[in-house]
Amino acid sequence: MPLILLTSEEYAEWLKNRPETPLWQCLEWKRYQERLGRETRIYGLISNQSNQQTSKPKNIFATALVIIDRTSFGLSTWDIPRGPTGNKESFAELIAGILEEAKKERCIALYYSPFYVIPNTKYVIPYTHLSSRHEQPEATLIINLTESDDQLLSSMHEKGRYNIRLAKRHGITVETSQDIDTFYALIRKTGKRDHYTAKPKSHYKDFIATLPGSFLLLAYDSLDTQKKALAGLIGVIYGETGIYYYGASDHAGRAKMAPSLLQFEAMKFCRSRGALHYDLFGIAPNDDPNHPWAGVTRFKKQFGGEQVMYPQEKEVTLMPIVKKLIEWKRKIIR
Q1: pLDDT tens figures, 27-58
Q2: How far apart are CA 326 and CA 329, in angstroms?
């Protein structure tokens, strides 16, 4: 089947009948990535026939929003986050076609992370192996938001309920906010404490500004006359699901259990805006103690929820030596 580039208008028309399309393959995510300075393309597999009156594809079998991150010397990485989408039987053919396009443009590696296992077909995706990145979770926890506050609490582990009660006794309150500066200060503290580098402030600012349904919540100590934020949470409501995306806190906030109350209030916030589910977005699969998310998994599991597993992200390495040199350089810089 022919591989073509779809316009945003053609893609929007195709998405009308696909409400299950994940956030990371929607047009809003495309605009967000472009705002971050990345190139985007929408590829589709179509039938050999086309609509002669409109010159638009008559039948689209599968699509993929591709995020292209260009670096020095014309090199790039290509990413299909939570894609492709459409007919699963066409996924391998679509990725193989995109891979051929990537080869023409000095692509170092291509990543793809569909929600579903790609069926075996005659199309082979060469040089594929499991990715060492953790951009998209292999496992997550989904909380049912159709329940009342008391039911949500009773579904949690005792530690979760205790921490929420403790935060309330400490006078912690949660408010919606637009104060990205305060959140950024918190996430820099968190990164320093937990040994990771926070993204640039514009990354969080553009997330809130570009994605409909995004929100920022800040937790305060109501007994503090300076009203200093102790914890913050950035999330997004997409379709019927609220997604916890970024969290941050200072040490005082953790001691007063501000992050725990913040999560509970985020669930209630999403439910009040029509969400039926709350996605804690990422835990270590099978409670792997060596997984980079092992620490945050212990925190998230106190809130209960149903564990959902996804296929692990795959990587197609096209320039292994170049990739190794870049990784080596970044490690030295860190």
Answers
A1: 999 999 999 999 999 999 998 755 545 555 46
A2: 5
Report which of 261, 263, 293 is spatially closest to residue 278, judged by C-alpha positions.
263
List Cα–Cα distances, 200 to 157, 183, 184, in angstroms: 35, 12, 9
Which of 186, 172, 232 is CA-nearest to residue 164?
172
Q: Please, what is the average pLDDT of the chain?
A: 93
Domain 139-309, what architecture?
A: 3-Layer(aba) Sandwich (3.40)
CB 235 within 8 A of CB 243: yes
Helix 180-194 / helix 201-210 crossing angle, nearest 10 deg: 130
Residues in the chain: 334
For residue 184, the model assigns a pLDDT of 98
CA 265 to chain centre: 21
pLDDT per residue over 309-334, tens digit each? Answer: 999 999 999 999 998 887 786 677 65
Q: For the domain 3-132+312-333, what is the CATH code?
A: 3.40.630.30
